Amino acid sequence: xxxxxxxxxxxxxxxxxxxxxxxxxxxxxxxxxxxxxxxxxxxxxxxxxxxxxxxxxxxxxxxxxxxxxxxxxxxxxxxxxxxxxxxxxxxxxxxxxxxxxxxxxxxxxxxxxxxxxxxxxxxxxxxxxxxxxxxxxxxxxxxxxxxxxxxxxxxxxxxxxxxxxxxxxxxxxxxxxxxxxxxxxxxxxxxxxxxxxxxxx
Amino acid sequence: xxxxxxxxxxxxxxxxxxxxxxxxxxxxxxxxxxxxxxxxxxxxxxxxxxxxxxxxxxxxxxxxxxxxxxxxxxxxxxxxxxxxxxxxxxxxxxxxxxxxxxxxxxxxxxxxxxxxxxxxxxxxxxxxxxxxxxxxxxxxxxxxxxxxxxxxxxxxxxxxxxxxxxxxxxxxxxxxxxxxxxxxxxxxxxxxxxxxxxxxx
Amino acid sequence: xxxxxxxxxxxxxxxxxxxxxxxxxxxxxxxxxxxxxxxxxxxxxxxxxxxxxxxxxxxxxxxxxxxxxxxxxxxxxxxxxxxxxxxxxxxxxxxxxxxxxxxxxxxxxxxxxxxxxxxxxxxxxxxxxxxxxxxxxxxxxxxxxxxxxxxxxxxxxxxxxxxxxxxxxxxxxxxxxxxxxxxxxxxxxxxxxxxxxxxxx
Amino acid sequence: xxxxxxxxxxxxxxxxxxxxxxxxxxxxxxxxxxxxxxxxxxxxxxxxxxxxxxxxxxxxxxxxxxxxxxxxxxxxxxxxxxxxxxxxxxxxxxxxxxxxxxxxxxxxxxxxxxxxxxxxxxxxxxxxxxxxxxxxxxxxxxxxxxxxxxxxxxxxxxxxxxxxxxxxxxxxxxxxxxxxxxxxxxxxxxxxxxxxxxxxx
DNA sequence: GATGAATGAGAATTCATTCAT
DNA sequence: GATGAATGAATTCTCATTCAT
Lengths: 201, 201, 201, 201
Hints:
homotetramer; mainly alpha; Tetracycline Repressor, domain 2; 2 domains; 71% helix; elongated; DNA-binding
């Protein structure tokens, strides 16, 4: 039954992704089970807690961002690559209502999520370093700023998405301009460090 | 009994403001009633629905922003006034967990809220127009962009507030720099119009 | 609605007493609600937790024992009074399947239950002291031994009750004989003290 | 495969013994399977029902008591032997949280358990007869009383075990004194007979 | 007019048992 | 013969809203 089990797991993850994306993280496990065509207990076999399920999906999402950032960091035109990365990332945030909700909760403190997040930060750091060297990005921002700003763009965009689909792109543009050196004024607050985002820090 | 009733209403609104600010819009009506020292039914007499209560508070909050924007629009140093307004507004967003939640729901579509929002937009428009004339703000943004951007800053800041209090100020700085003409690139999306935010539009 | 509420509370307590007595403490709140003719939420309004409900009933039961012990302590024939008290107490244990279950759990650690238990112990102590003076009870037992022994008799009796109703009386007789001085051998363990039964002791 | 199957059965029984002893009869089959290193279905192949598994273990436990009683019945110092048997038996009850729970349910009515129980009763009867002849035990008790009293001691002891380990020994002492002739008063209930404990009797 | 008691609908989670591989 | 995946039924608890006093 390895095959069937794997298929069921995939159906659960797919269903959960869809349902959480549509309804947010408060969607009920029953709805996911119904969409996946399994009983709720089947979900609880794989994921002892609803939060575990959310964490698994969130981890995957962060991992996808990390991969994308890694590719962007290698691109020839680094300014273009940075913008492309942030556009794709923001679009991914927008497509999943639960993404930002997970980032708000302690889901983000789970070690497996932290590991992916560290990868993401590392890759973004490489991307950003090159972008600074190319004069595309102001010197006083760091990799931690990027996911924060993306979250803000996505949340603001979510307010409008139903009525003005894609409006978030406008706000991403403004934020990207804010990252350019040309308009930079001194920032009133220090950049974040890894310590700031660690549990109990 | 007019006096008692009015006092009760005030206590309800105060309690609801506190509770929703602390716990978010999912706080229970019972908790608000307890904090206000009234029965739950007393709340339901004034506000047929929990959402009606949220809307009343949201309306007040938007009204306060409108007043602040009006004052800012008259200030001598318009650049400084804009930044000051946005800092106070973002701080207000941060202080009330329910604020952004209301903006996400259809609370924002209620006519009384719309009226306040129109005032806010009008005042921000005056502020922004002067700021553009002073060369402080790029020409391609409009008043609708401001509350959107504030919401994004506040939501991003909320992610960090517990661990890095005040971090939102850093992100507001970046957004403010993004609004300056110096780094402006063409925006990929048109600005919003009043029609975009009307019900059924 | 004071009257109705009080009536409902009484019905809840009566129903809970019956259901827990019959089915034990694992009976479902739903069954109690059904028997009481109320919704489950009504029960949760009065008793935030199922355990709170159990504790309230347990407290009442201990209180009844305490009253009975107080009366017994005043009786003329102290030996007869002791036996009478223990018979009635054991009968009460037998009539309520949840009684011993509560004594096993941390329900017994609740302060309100502790207070009743302290009363019980105090009254039993008076009863026992007089019984010792009258030569009816061995000197090396104390008041804490009494509820323990009663529990044992009741639990043993419960095994038989369905098939041999009242068999517990036989075992109570044997225990009562064990408390008499005539057959006393040194006890291998020290008596309990109040400290032993306190939380964290 | 005979060997593997036998090994699995042994592992299941060992694991079940441990788990039920620690957690009581409400421990989940899944936990036992995990501890045994087998799948749950393997358990269900051997034991169609969780209760069948409990019964098998209970049968073994009763059998061990029967053996111990047989040895005690042959001992030179019969009073000492009786006390020793009851101490060991009570200790065994204490060490297995599920033991008394099984005795409470209809597990005890299964024929295989009955057979073991009959052995136990027979051996205890021999032990008791000799003890009566030696003047160590009152004449009006019989073998059926012994397991009942042990159960009572164990259940009472269980209430205290966590806080006052070994306290049960004190209560066993009292019960043993109650079995001595010196303090015997007439018992208010007749002794049990084999018929009382038969199914449907 | 105010109160707070009552409730129905639903949420997460658990577990003995069955079934497909 | 063994496995572990699947599940239905049950359980505790929550909350917005209505209703009787």
